[in-house]
From TrEMBL:
One of its GO terms (molecular function) is DNA binding. Residues 26-94 form the RNA polymerase sigma-70 region domain. Keywords: Sigma factor, Transcription, Transcription regulation. Belongs to the sigma-70 factor family. ECF subfamily. SUPFAM superfamilies: Sigma2 domain of RNA polymerase sigma factors, Sigma3 and sigma4 domains of RNA polymerase sigma factors. It comes from Ectopseudomonas guguanensis. The keyword Transcription regulation applies. PANTHER family: RNA POLYMERASE ECF-TYPE SIGMA FACTO (PTHR43133), RNA POLYMERASE SIGMA FACTOR SIGZ (PTHR43133:SF62). Pfam families: Sigma70_r2, Sigma70_r4_2. This is RNA polymerase sigma-70 factor, ECF subfamily. One of its GO terms (biological process) is DNA-templated transcription initiation. The keyword Cytoplasm does not apply.
Length: 182
């Protein structure tokens, strides 16, 4: 579980200065959460561990690129892992086939969902906000973020025009952002 008081921004700035202790603290803080996310997207622990390793190497090597004025440090860290996972998916490493209802179960209060989601209080807020979205907006967002599908793959899977999918995701993310900031 993430520590609410953890200062991601200062920790990343310390990493950029070569502070190994800051990097170790960041690893301890986020490795479990990131591994759970990678496993849920890839469906394979071995590939998830590889992506996690690659993500942390990249974080260490490129911490100087993080800028706090452009966004939260935690979001930056999570985006690096997400890109590693998406690259693995695109390079042919496919996750185990799981029914699409799996991604809807992420909204449940089950122990599995708890382990895969963000910090418990943030997770409850995110679930509440996701539940407020109508399914046509929510489902493509969940397919993108929890299954790692591209917009094109989502459009094919849902038999919906690509432009419609992009619009639904954009509108859904805007609504989520408003809900999370309320």
């Amino acid at each position: 579980m993430a520590d609410r008081d953890f200062d991601y921004e200062s920790t990343l700035e310390a990493c950029a200065r070569g502070d190994e202790r800051a990097f170790q603290a960041l690893y301890r803080q986020e490795a479990g959460q990131l591994l759970g996310l990678a496993i849920s997207m890839l469906g394979r622990r071995d590939l998830a561990e590889d992506c996690l390793h690659d993500a942390f190497v990249r974080i260490w090597q490129h911490a100087t690129r993080y800028r706090r004025d452009l966004g939260s440090g935690r979001a930056w860290v999570h985006s690096i892992l997400r890109y590693r996972v998406l690259n693995a998916l695109r390079s042919g490493h496919r996750h185990a086939e799981v029914d699409d209802d799996f991604i809807e179960r992420v909204l449940d209060d089950s122990p599995q969902a708890e382990a895969q989601a963000l910090e418990q209080s943030e997770q409850r807020l995110l679930r509440r906000c996701l539940r407020r979205l109508e399914r046509p907006r929510r489902h493509p967002i969940l397919l993108a973020f929890y299954r790692g599908l591209t917009h094109e793959q989502i459009a094919r899977r849902l038999s919906t025009p690509l432009g419609t999918i992009k619009g639904r995701i954009r509108a859904g993310l805007r609504a989520l952002q408003e809900c999370l900031q309320a």
